[in-house]
Amino acid sequence: MARYPGATWLPITHNVGGRRTQTIGFVLHVQVGNGSLHGYFDNPATGASSHFWAAKDGRLEQYVDTDLTAWTQGAGNASYVSVECEGYPSEAMTSAQLVNVATLLDWLAGLYSFLAVGPVAHGMHGFTPHCNPDGSPDPAWGNHTCPGTLRLAQMPAIVAMAQPGPGPEQGEDDMDAVVLSDGTIVSHFRTPNDHYIEVTRKAGTQGTAMNPTNTSVVDLTAQWPGFEAAG
User: Fold this and answer.
1) CATH 3.40.80.10 fits 8-162, yes or no
2) Which residues, in sequence order, are bridge partners of residue 53?
3) pTM for the complete prediction?
4) pLDDT value at position 167?
Protein backbone atom coordinates (compact mmCIF):
# COMPACT_ATOMS: atom_id res chain seq x y z
CA MET A 1 0.00 0.00 0.00
CA ALA A 2 1.31 3.45 -0.93
CA ARG A 3 -0.17 6.16 1.27
CA TYR A 4 1.29 9.64 1.64
CA PRO A 5 1.91 10.32 5.37
CA GLY A 6 1.02 14.02 5.01
CA ALA A 7 -2.54 13.35 3.77
CA THR A 8 -5.74 12.24 5.47
CA TRP A 9 -6.49 8.74 4.22
CA LEU A 10 -10.10 8.63 2.94
CA PRO A 11 -10.24 5.64 0.57
CA ILE A 12 -13.01 5.45 -2.02
CA THR A 13 -14.58 2.15 -3.05
CA HIS A 14 -15.79 3.18 -6.50
CA ASN A 15 -14.06 4.57 -9.62
CA VAL A 16 -10.73 2.87 -8.88
CA GLY A 17 -8.77 0.77 -11.37
CA GLY A 18 -6.19 -1.95 -10.90
CA ARG A 19 -2.51 -1.78 -10.08
CA ARG A 20 -0.37 0.20 -12.53
CA THR A 21 2.62 -1.51 -14.12
CA GLN A 22 4.63 1.75 -14.10
CA THR A 23 4.49 5.20 -12.53
CA ILE A 24 6.43 7.87 -14.40
CA GLY A 25 5.04 11.12 -13.05
CA PHE A 26 2.51 13.35 -11.34
CA VAL A 27 -0.36 15.33 -12.90
CA LEU A 28 -1.75 18.70 -11.77
CA HIS A 29 -5.53 19.30 -12.04
CA VAL A 30 -7.92 22.08 -11.04
CA GLN A 31 -11.16 21.08 -9.29
CA VAL A 32 -13.38 23.80 -10.86
CA GLY A 33 -15.19 24.05 -7.53
CA ASN A 34 -14.71 24.10 -3.77
CA GLY A 35 -15.00 21.51 -1.02
CA SER A 36 -13.80 17.95 -0.53
CA LEU A 37 -14.17 15.63 -3.52
CA HIS A 38 -14.44 12.43 -1.45
CA GLY A 39 -18.20 12.02 -1.84
CA TYR A 40 -18.14 12.97 -5.50
CA PHE A 41 -15.42 10.49 -6.37
CA ASP A 42 -16.99 7.71 -4.28
CA ASN A 43 -20.20 7.91 -6.30
CA PRO A 44 -20.29 5.14 -8.95
CA ALA A 45 -22.28 7.43 -11.26
CA THR A 46 -19.41 9.92 -11.41
CA GLY A 47 -17.00 7.69 -13.31
CA ALA A 48 -14.02 9.79 -12.16
CA SER A 49 -11.52 9.95 -9.32
CA SER A 50 -8.14 11.30 -8.28
CA HIS A 51 -5.43 10.06 -5.95
CA PHE A 52 -5.27 13.33 -3.97
CA TRP A 53 -7.25 16.49 -3.26
CA ALA A 54 -5.39 19.66 -2.11
CA ALA A 55 -7.51 22.29 -0.37
CA LYS A 56 -6.82 26.02 -0.40
CA ASP A 57 -6.37 26.03 3.39
CA GLY A 58 -3.71 23.30 3.46
CA ARG A 59 -5.85 20.19 3.96
CA LEU A 60 -4.74 17.23 1.88
CA GLU A 61 -6.85 14.12 1.32
CA GLN A 62 -5.85 10.84 -0.33
CA TYR A 63 -8.58 8.76 -1.95
CA VAL A 64 -6.66 6.14 -3.95
CA ASP A 65 -3.50 4.17 -3.15
CA THR A 66 -0.82 5.58 -5.44
CA ASP A 67 0.01 2.06 -6.69
CA LEU A 68 -3.54 1.82 -8.08
CA THR A 69 -5.14 3.60 -11.03
CA ALA A 70 -7.38 6.64 -10.51
CA TRP A 71 -9.72 7.74 -13.29
CA THR A 72 -8.45 11.26 -13.83
CA GLN A 73 -6.79 11.98 -17.17
CA GLY A 74 -7.75 9.44 -19.81
CA ALA A 75 -4.72 7.84 -21.42
CA GLY A 76 -2.52 9.22 -18.63
CA ASN A 77 -4.21 7.14 -15.95
CA ALA A 78 -2.02 4.12 -16.62
CA SER A 79 1.27 5.88 -15.80
CA TYR A 80 0.61 8.91 -13.56
CA VAL A 81 -0.52 9.84 -10.06
CA SER A 82 -2.98 12.76 -9.90
CA VAL A 83 -3.93 15.64 -7.61
CA GLU A 84 -7.07 17.78 -7.84
CA CYS A 85 -6.52 21.27 -6.42
CA GLU A 86 -9.48 23.13 -4.95
CA GLY A 87 -10.65 26.27 -6.74
CA TYR A 88 -11.15 27.52 -10.28
CA PRO A 89 -8.84 28.14 -13.26
CA SER A 90 -9.32 31.89 -12.71
CA GLU A 91 -7.68 31.56 -9.25
CA ALA A 92 -4.00 30.96 -8.61
CA MET A 93 -3.15 28.21 -6.14
CA THR A 94 -2.69 29.31 -2.54
CA SER A 95 0.69 29.11 -0.83
CA ALA A 96 -0.55 26.08 1.12
CA GLN A 97 -1.47 24.31 -2.10
CA LEU A 98 1.89 25.11 -3.66
CA VAL A 99 3.75 23.60 -0.70
CA ASN A 100 1.50 20.52 -0.53
CA VAL A 101 1.83 19.80 -4.24
CA ALA A 102 5.61 20.35 -4.09
CA THR A 103 6.10 18.00 -1.15
CA LEU A 104 3.85 15.44 -2.84
CA LEU A 105 5.94 15.71 -6.01
CA ASP A 106 9.10 15.24 -3.98
CA TRP A 107 7.68 12.16 -2.20
CA LEU A 108 6.35 10.56 -5.39
CA ALA A 109 9.59 11.17 -7.29
CA GLY A 110 11.51 9.37 -4.57
CA LEU A 111 8.99 6.54 -4.28
CA TYR A 112 8.76 5.82 -8.01
CA SER A 113 12.26 6.89 -9.11
CA PHE A 114 11.42 9.70 -11.53
CA LEU A 115 12.91 13.20 -11.52
CA ALA A 116 11.01 16.15 -10.03
CA VAL A 117 11.16 18.15 -13.27
CA GLY A 118 8.59 19.86 -15.44
CA PRO A 119 6.24 20.72 -16.77
CA VAL A 120 7.06 17.82 -19.07
CA ALA A 121 5.19 16.59 -22.15
CA HIS A 122 2.61 13.86 -21.73
CA GLY A 123 4.29 10.48 -21.76
CA MET A 124 7.53 11.84 -20.28
CA HIS A 125 8.87 11.30 -16.75
CA GLY A 126 8.13 14.14 -14.30
CA PHE A 127 5.48 16.71 -13.41
CA THR A 128 2.87 17.54 -16.04
CA PRO A 129 -0.50 19.32 -16.30
CA HIS A 130 -3.77 17.73 -17.40
CA CYS A 131 -3.60 19.76 -20.61
CA ASN A 132 -0.44 19.90 -22.70
CA PRO A 133 2.34 22.00 -21.13
CA ASP A 134 1.64 24.79 -23.65
CA GLY A 135 -1.96 24.98 -22.43
CA SER A 136 -3.57 23.26 -25.40
CA PRO A 137 -5.98 20.34 -24.84
CA ASP A 138 -4.77 16.77 -25.34
CA PRO A 139 -7.58 14.67 -26.90
CA ALA A 140 -6.06 11.46 -25.52
CA TRP A 141 -6.11 12.93 -22.01
CA GLY A 142 -9.72 14.14 -22.02
CA ASN A 143 -9.35 17.22 -24.23
CA HIS A 144 -9.23 19.70 -21.32
CA THR A 145 -7.42 23.04 -20.74
CA CYS A 146 -7.11 22.11 -17.01
CA PRO A 147 -5.55 23.49 -14.82
CA GLY A 148 -5.66 26.86 -16.65
CA THR A 149 -3.13 29.56 -17.46
CA LEU A 150 -2.62 30.89 -13.91
CA ARG A 151 -1.86 27.48 -12.46
CA LEU A 152 0.31 26.43 -15.38
CA ALA A 153 2.45 29.48 -14.61
CA GLN A 154 2.91 28.26 -11.01
CA MET A 155 4.27 24.84 -11.99
CA PRO A 156 7.94 25.94 -12.24
CA ALA A 157 7.74 27.28 -8.66
CA ILE A 158 6.35 23.92 -7.50
CA VAL A 159 9.20 22.11 -9.24
CA ALA A 160 11.76 24.46 -7.66
CA MET A 161 10.38 23.72 -4.19
CA ALA A 162 10.35 19.96 -4.85
CA GLN A 163 13.95 19.72 -6.02
CA PRO A 164 16.28 19.03 -3.08
CA GLY A 165 18.80 21.61 -2.04
CA PRO A 166 20.61 22.94 1.04
CA GLY A 167 18.85 25.38 3.37
CA PRO A 168 19.59 27.37 6.52
CA GLU A 169 19.40 25.87 9.97
CA GLN A 170 16.13 26.35 11.86
CA GLY A 171 14.52 25.39 15.12
CA GLU A 172 12.55 22.22 15.71
CA ASP A 173 9.26 23.65 14.42
CA ASP A 174 10.97 24.81 11.19
CA MET A 175 8.64 27.79 10.83
CA ASP A 176 8.33 31.42 11.90
CA ALA A 177 5.93 34.26 11.17
CA VAL A 178 6.21 38.04 11.62
CA VAL A 179 3.37 40.58 11.41
CA LEU A 180 4.55 43.93 10.04
CA SER A 181 3.14 47.32 11.05
CA ASP A 182 0.83 47.45 8.02
CA GLY A 183 -0.65 44.04 8.80
CA THR A 184 1.42 42.12 6.25
CA ILE A 185 2.30 38.61 7.43
CA VAL A 186 5.72 37.25 6.44
CA SER A 187 6.24 33.55 7.13
CA HIS A 188 9.32 31.37 6.65
CA PHE A 189 9.52 27.60 6.72
CA ARG A 190 11.71 24.80 5.50
CA THR A 191 10.20 22.10 3.30
CA PRO A 192 11.05 18.42 3.87
CA ASN A 193 13.52 18.65 0.97
CA ASP A 194 15.45 21.51 2.65
CA HIS A 195 14.19 24.47 0.67
CA TYR A 196 13.64 27.65 2.69
CA ILE A 197 10.39 29.33 1.63
CA GLU A 198 9.12 32.85 2.31
CA VAL A 199 5.37 33.52 2.02
CA THR A 200 4.22 37.17 2.15
CA ARG A 201 0.53 37.99 2.52
CA LYS A 202 -0.66 41.58 2.64
CA ALA A 203 -3.37 42.57 5.11
CA GLY A 204 -6.82 41.36 4.19
CA THR A 205 -5.66 38.41 2.05
CA GLN A 206 -5.62 35.66 4.67
CA GLY A 207 -8.89 34.12 3.44
CA THR A 208 -9.38 30.89 1.56
CA ALA A 209 -8.33 32.24 -1.84
CA MET A 210 -4.94 33.61 -2.75
CA ASN A 211 -4.80 36.91 -4.62
CA PRO A 212 -1.67 36.64 -6.82
CA THR A 213 -1.19 40.43 -6.50
CA ASN A 214 -1.14 40.40 -2.70
CA THR A 215 0.51 37.05 -1.93
CA SER A 216 3.96 35.91 -2.97
CA VAL A 217 5.92 32.69 -2.50
CA VAL A 218 9.71 32.92 -2.83
CA ASP A 219 12.37 30.22 -2.50
CA LEU A 220 15.14 31.81 -0.41
CA THR A 221 17.39 28.75 -0.22
CA ALA A 222 20.36 30.30 -2.04
CA GLN A 223 19.75 33.84 -0.74
CA TRP A 224 19.73 33.25 3.02
CA PRO A 225 22.59 35.00 4.87
CA GLY A 226 25.30 32.47 5.68
CA PHE A 227 24.12 30.10 2.97
CA GLU A 228 26.72 27.49 2.12
CA ALA A 229 26.52 25.08 -0.77
CA ALA A 230 26.33 21.44 0.22
CA GLY A 231 29.69 19.79 0.16
Assistant:
1) yes
2) 61, 84
3) 0.74
4) 40
